[in-house]
Amino acid sequence: MSRTAPQLLEAIVLDAAHAALKSPVYAGQQIEPRAFAQVNRDSLLELVARVPTLRAQLAQTYRNELSETHPHVVALLSDSATDSAAAAAVLRDPRAIRSRRGRSRPSAKAGSNGEQSAVADERSPAILDSATARRLERYERRLTEIRTARDRARVQRDYARAETDQLRRELETAREDRDESLAVIEGLRAKLAAERAHVAELATDVLAAAAVLKAAILPPPTELPVVEDIDVDPREREAAVDTRTSEEAPVADPIVAAALTRADVSPDVLLSVLNALLEPPAPVESVWVGEPREIALTPLGGGTDIGDSCMLVTVGDVRILIDAGMHANKRIDQAGPEHIDVALAGPIAAIVITHAHNDHAGYVPALIANYPTVPVICTPETAAILPTMWSDSVRVFDRTRGSHVGSDESLAEPPYGDAQVYAAQRRIREVQCGRVVEIAAGVTVALFPAGHILGAAGVVVSAGQNRVTVTGDVSDLAQISVPGLVVPDVARGSDLLVIESTYCGPQSSNREAEVERFVRIVSETVGDPANGGRVLVPAFALGRAQEVALTLRHRLPDVPVLIDGMAKDIAKIYEEQTAGTARPLKIYGEQVSAVQPGERDQLLRAFRRGVVVTTSGMLTAGPAVTWARSILPDPEAALLLAGYQDEESPGFELLELAKANRRAMFVLDREELAVNARVAKFGLSAHADRRGLSSIITEVGAREVMLVHGVASKQRDFADNLTRRGFHVAPTRHWQLTG
Question: Is the pTM of this model over 0.85?
Answer without folding.
Answer: no
